Amino acid sequence: MERKGHMIGVVVSWDAELRAPPEWIYRMHSNFEDTKAERTPHYKVLFRGPTPSSLMVAYLPQTQLERITDTRPDIPTLDNYFTHFDGTRFIMQPWLRELFPEDEDEDA
Where is the Hemimethylated DNA-binding domain positioned along the sequence (predicted)? Predict the structure, then answer.
């Protein structure tokens, strides 16, 4: 869950620390607290948009996220990233598991 807007999304990718163009970093992380967040893991998160078929994508530091389980948000395109929802969490597609093999134990 995204902490500021209380939106429920699904993480589909992550970086060990912020990876973005300098202009974007300056625009998004202009204060001291945000600058510290540059060295924390960042996550690509999908959220449902304002209409059922729309999608919002965010790139957020770990400090702005809270992990929740047992919830399956209705977000378009999740089947591109995950094979299914097991009642607790989403299970990655094989191609995504290849990109993030260290997360495989979390899916087992």
Answer: 1-93
Q: Per-domain residue ranges for the chain?
A: 9-107
Secondary structure E strands in the chain: 9-15, 42-48, 55-61, 82-85, 90-92
* This prediction's pTM: 0.82
Burial class (CB in 10 A: 0-12, 13-18, 19+), 75: buried
Is pLDDT of 52 > 90?
no
pLDDT in the model for residue 69: 85
CA atoms within 13 A on the CB side of 103: 18
CA distance 39 to 33: 11
